[in-house]
Design goal:
Blueprint lengths: L4 E2 L9 H4 L5 E7 L2 E7 L2 E6 L2 E9 L3 H8 L2 E6 L5 H9 L7 H4 L4 E4 L2 E4 L4 E12 L8 H7 L6 E13 L1
Antiparallel strand pairs: 1-10, 2-3, 2-6, 4-5, 5-10, 6-9, 7-8, 9-10
Amino acid sequence: MHTFQPIPSDLFDFSPFRMIGKDWMLITAQAEDKTNTMTASWGGLGVMWGKDVVYIVVRDSRYTRELIDQSKTFSISFLNPEYHSALKYLGAVSGRDEDKIANARLNVNYHEGIPFIDEASTVMVCKKMCKQPLSKDNFTLDSIDEKWYTNGDYHNLYIGEIVSILAR
């Protein structure tokens, strides 16, 4: 396992538009003895209720959503570009059907009992604060539903307090 060092959030400086939107991230959660991760390219960072937070969205159909719902914590992991094929794989297969983390040749590490992907360069360990299901009724633009949800597989918005930021 790799060694990670904590970084104070006020010293952490990166572009969420690049790291989330272009490089992607892995959302990892564990419930009981099951751990799963999924690739995501939508989300954000900010401040809510006086806390540094991450915003993630996870579709109803995703197995990772079930684990997030059963847990009080989750993590987001950012990997270097050489892991892009693993990120594509993790976004294409379901953890319900296989141990996709092992099949992607990645490993799970833990910080204060919260799982994250060991090959990451940066990790945000989070405590779940809020879940808000999204639906057609939430959108003020009809084009959102028409473009992204024609099959009715809506996202859930999660807000998580950033407990720790870790870097290798």
